Every structure is written in structure tokens, then in C-alpha cells.
TrEMBL record:
<dbReference type="InterPro" id="IPR003439">
    <property type="entry name" value="ABC_transporter-like_ATP-bd"/>
</dbReference>
<keyword id="KW-0547">Nucleotide-binding</keyword>
<dbReference type="InterPro" id="IPR003593">
    <property type="entry name" value="AAA+_ATPase"/>
</dbReference>
<keyword id="KW-0472">Membrane</keyword>
<dbReference type="InterPro" id="IPR025302">
    <property type="entry name" value="DrrA1/2-like_C"/>
</dbReference>
<dbReference type="GO" id="GO:0016020">
    <property type="term" value="C:membrane"/>
</dbReference>
<keyword id="KW-0812">Transmembrane</keyword>
<dbReference type="Pfam" id="PF00005">
    <property type="entry name" value="ABC_tran"/>
</dbReference>
<dbReference type="InterPro" id="IPR017871">
    <property type="entry name" value="ABC_transporter-like_CS"/>
</dbReference>
<keyword id="KW-0067">ATP-binding</keyword>
<dbReference type="InterPro" id="IPR027417">
    <property type="entry name" value="P-loop_NTPase"/>
</dbReference>
<dbReference type="GO" id="GO:0016887">
    <property type="term" value="F:ATP hydrolysis activity"/>
</dbReference>
<keyword id="KW-1133">Transmembrane helix</keyword>
<feature type="domain" description="ABC transporter">
    <location>
        <begin position="2"/>
        <end position="233"/>
    </location>
</feature>
<keyword id="KW-0813">Transport</keyword>
<dbReference type="GO" id="GO:0005524">
    <property type="term" value="F:ATP binding"/>
</dbReference>
<dbReference type="Pfam" id="PF13732">
    <property type="entry name" value="DrrA1-3_C"/>
</dbReference>
Length: 310
């Protein structure tokens, strides 16, 4: 449905995006992952026709949107990373404004606003000023504005940042429902790996302006099919313990988030004895040790050397 071909964007001497190739099939949800500064937002801005690429092309069917961006804009909804609403207007007034921008006829717009308010769960708050809304409600209204013109493709750039778990779950269920019931094609970026695992059919991992891995969740997890993940829980995480672990031969990656340490090692490497020795030498009390199949987060760390939220 939409294809990105050898897309690059240069800013002075910096290549923000470097020869990116990706595609969206009709009716699928695709995740675009990458640490901060990976080039995701620049890529999305080019796909949305907000900025022109330095090189490459973006095709809708057989047509280049660089030459005819209006064809894409008519069927594209964008949920930006930052909330883009008028705080001094009510929820309904915001939707009326954005509907007018899309040139939706008044009678049709009234119907669409009713439908969108139901979808985002704000029907009972439609006459309240947006400045009185919680962060989650603003995010939901932000999504509603992108859905007014009934788009075939929706780009969602971290739509759940900084909101409460209940609103986050509501948004995830809404995206899932739109994709399933309306066959809406979604390009989804997030700093939460579990969201991408839950929503996405395929995933692209981006770092330093390039796509470094792509495929289904199973395809990407298979990158570490010969590895195992060891999850260690400690009473108190010490820097000396991490330093001791780094000296153990065979370890590929170590990541730490109090009170856990995650280690990636080849399956044939047996290092439990060395882990307990490191704990004893650094006076670290181990609560538990679990050996697991590597997760999507483990693969991401392996490929980029960074946590997704870094």
C-alpha cells in the first residue's frame, strides 16, 4: 500500500536518515522502534509529506507522493508525539476545527464527530475545555482529530507517552479495534516494547538513521535463537557486581534496572557458577535467577547496545 524506497535526509553535515526501506501492507499494524535520535521522527515527517527527503522516494501504490502529496494526505491520519490541540476550546470545538481543515461537509462532519467521540470515549466530556482534561484524555482527543476524515492509514508517534495505565490500555485497545474492524493500516512508534509486541504484525528496528532489522516478532526474536537470557534479581544492585559480571567470558550483553540484571549468553555457555562467585566476591545477595528465551527487548539491546528508552 505504501512503500519507502532508499529514503535519506541530510541536515548540513549530518545524515538523520540513511537509505531507509520499508513498506506497509493494507490492514496491518507495523512497529517502528529505535532509541532517541535513531531517525524515527524524521522518517515519519517525510512519510507524512511534511518535509522532503534529500534522496529516495515514497510511493502510494504506483505513485510518488513527492510529486502528488495530496493523494496521500486525503487518506492519512497523523497522531503526533506532542499533543496538538487548542486548550481554550472544548473537545467538540477542536474536532469541528480539524474537520473544517479536512473540508468535511457540515452534515457529514456532525456524524463523524459523534462516531469519533464514541471511539475515543469522550462523548460525556465533549463540551468541556481541553485545558481541564487529564493527559490521557488529551491523548485520546489527539487520536480523535486524526480519525475524523476516516483515513486508510494512520501514523501514531508515541501516542501513550506520559499517561496513566488506564488511558494507555484504552488507547491500545482502540488501535487494536480500529485495525481489526476497519482494516486501518497503522504505523506505530513507541518507547514501550510491550505495546509493539501486543499491536504489531511486523517490526522495523532503526538506529543511527538506518533500518538494522525487520520482520515479524518471531523473525526478530530468532536473531538470538542461539542465545539465552539470564534474569538475576538482587537485594541491592551494586556497581562492583556489574563490573565483576563484565569480566566473565562469554557474556554478550549486560543490562541493569534495579533490582534486576539481564545477561545474554550463548546457550552452550554455562556461567551460573561464575555469576554466584561474582555475587559472593562483591557481597551481593541474589534473590533469584531465571533462564529464559530472549525477548524482543533483549534483541533490541543486542542490536543497538541501548535500551529502547535510552
Amino acid at each position: 500500500m505504501l512503500e519507502v524506497v532508499n529514503l535519506s535526509k541530510h541536515f548540513k553535515n549530518k545524515k538523520a536518515v540513511n537509505s531507509v526501506n520499508l513498506y506497509l501492507e493494507k490492514g496491518e499494524t507495523v512497529g517502528l522502534l529505535g532509541p532517541n535520535g535513531a531517525g524515527k521522527s524524521t522518517t515519519i515527517s517525510m512519510i507524512s509529506s511534511l518535509i522532503r527527503p534529500t534522496e529516495g522516494d515514497i510511493r502510494l501504490g504506483n505513485n510518488s507522493i513527492l510529486k502528488t502529496p495530496q493523494k496521500l494526505r486525503k487518506i492519512l491520519g497523523v497522531v503526533p508525539q506532542e499533543v496538538a490541540l487548542y486548550m481554550e476550546l472544548t473537545a467538540r470545538e477542536n474536532l469541528e476545527f480539524f474537520g473544517a481543515i479536512h473540508q468535511i461537509p457540515k452534515q457529514e462532519l456532525r456524524k463523524r464527530i459523534e462516531e469519533v467521540l464514541e471511539i475515543i470515549g469522550l462523548k460525556d466530556r465533549e463540551k468541556e475545555l481541553v485545558k481541564t482534561f487529564s493527559g490521557g484524555m488529551k491523548r485520546r482527543l489527539n487520536i480523535g482529530a486524526a480519525l475524523l476524515h476516516n483515513p486508510e492509514i494512520v501514523i501514531m508517534d508515541e501516542p501513550t507517552v506520559g499517561i496513566d495505565p488506564q488511558s494507555r490500555n484504552y488507547i491500545l485497545e482502540t488501535v487494536k479495534r480500529l485495525n481489526k474492524e476497519k482494516k486501518m493500516t497503522v504505523l506505530y512508534t513507541s518507547h514501550y516494547m510491550e505495546e509493539v509486541e501486543y499491536l504489531c504484525d511486523r517490526i522495523y528496528i532503526m538506529d543511527s538513521g538506518r533500518i538494522i532489522a525487520s520482520g515479524t516478532k518471531e523473525d526478530i526474536k530468532s536473531i538470538l535463537s542461539q542465545e539465552q537470557s539470564i534474569l538475576i534479581k538482587v537485594e541491592m544492585l551494586k556497581g562492583t557486581f556489574l563490573e565483576a559480571l563484565e569480566q566473565i567470558p562469554g557474556i554478550k550483553n549486560i543490562s541493569a534496572k534495579e533490582p534486576y540484571v539481564t545477561i545474554i549468553v550463548p546457550k552452550q555457555v554455562h556461567i551460573l557458577k561464575d555469576i554466584f562467585k561474582a555475587a559472593e566476591e562483591t557481597e551481593t545477595n541474589i534473590v533469584s535467577v531465571n533462564i529464559e528465551t530472549p525477548t524482543l527487548e533483549d534483541v533490541f539491546l543486542h542490536l543497538t547496545g541501548r535500551q529502547l528508552r535510552d
